[in-house]
Design goal:
Elements (H helix, E strand, L loop, with lengths): L2 H21 L7 E9 L4 H15 L2 E7 L23 E7 L6 H12 L3 E5 L12 H6 L1 E2 L10 E4 L13 E2 L10 E2 L3 E10 L4 E12 L2 E6 L5 H4 L2 H14 L38
Parallel strand pairs: 1-2, 1-3, 3-4, 4-11
Antiparallel strand pairs: 5-8, 6-7, 6-9, 9-10, 10-11
Helix pairs in contact: 2-6
């Protein structure tokens, strides 16, 4: 066989092989997330399961659980004593409720991880944590809130329709929920949605979802999510999943996960099926 023809066949074969490899790139590694739950006043046993399942349905993310069985406002997490507590994680989901943990070195360890670039998602009572007497924690979450109204439905209205997190999402009304007040929205924060609640005595209207720039990190936060029915709601999970993807730079301008960061497929979550699993990383006082 003519050696020039053999060389031609080799070149064609190499080109085809290269094309196949380029058309089928390896799926990127999952986003590595840590979900922290525990403390006062919430059904964290089932809510952590709903969040883990719902987020993994919607994004290529592995959610590791860190949970405290302490149901007081003084729940502590031993990992926070370590300055490198967030090493190896792309994003931390703060869903704890620990307003009476006030030691500044402990709180600074948490904040330093985010100042140095670890993204964050803050849910509901995270906004009421670590009341050390300064604005340090509030600047991180992007809002200063001191309390909430009664357990009544909240009308959620998206006010930033062009942001990738909220683009195309429909306004909705929650089940009975707590509407957190806004003492101050920091200048680093961008409101995405507001909540309106008829308390029976007056109408309250506050920002309920926003994004924040903090140090080297992106932060997404929502005060929604007191009750398990809300946390398991597909509309809530869609919002939080988008916020998580945005925080790590994996949400496209079209509000869809970037290629390779799609989840396993969205399916309804039945609350009665959420049976808390033993957590080998459980952290108590």
């Amino acid at each position: 066989m003519n050696r020039h023809f053999i060389a031609f066949l080799f070149a064609i074969s190499t080109t085809l092989t290269s094309s196949v490899w380029c058309a089928d790139p390896a799926k990127p590694k999952p986003i590595k997330a840590m979900l922290i739950t525990g403390g006062c006043c919430h059904d964290y046993g089932r809510q952590k399961e709903a969040l883990k399942l719902g987020l993994q349905q919607r994004a290529n993310v592995t959610v590791d659980l860190v949970h405290s069985e302490d149901t007081t406002t003084k729940a502590r997490f031993s990992m926070y004593e370590n300055p490198d507590w967030a090493a190896g994680y792309d994003v931390i989901i703060h869903d704890e409720c620990t307003s009476d943990v006030k030691e500044m070195p402990y709180v600074q360890n948490i904040l330093n991880a985010h100042k140095n670039g670890v993204a964050a998602v803050n849910l509901h009572c995270a906004m009421h944590c670590y009341r050390v007497g300064t604005d340090d924690w509030f600047q991180f979450v992007g809002i200063h809130s001191t309390g909430h109204g009664p357990q009544k439905p909240i009308d959620v209205t998206f006010v930033h329709r062009d942001h990738p997190v909220s683009k195309g999402l429909e306004n909705w009304t929650t089940v009975n929920e707590e509407l957190y007040n806004n003492v101050r929205l920091f200048e680093t924060s961008t409101p995405l949605a507001r909540g309106r609640q008829d308390t029976g005595k007056k109408i309250d209207d506050y920002v309920v979802t926003w994004t924040t720039e903090y140090g080297k990190s992106r932060v997404f936060s929502t005060t929604l999510g007191h009750n398990t029915a809300t946390v398991a709601d597909s509309r809530y999970l869609d919002l939080v999943a988008r916020g998580l993807l945005w925080s790590v730079g994996k949400l496209g301008d079209d509000s869809k996960p970037l290629p390779g960061y799609e989840g396993t497929g969205v399916k309804p979550i039945v609350i009665d099926d959420l049976k808390p699993q033993p957590d080998p990383k459980a952290s108590g006082k």
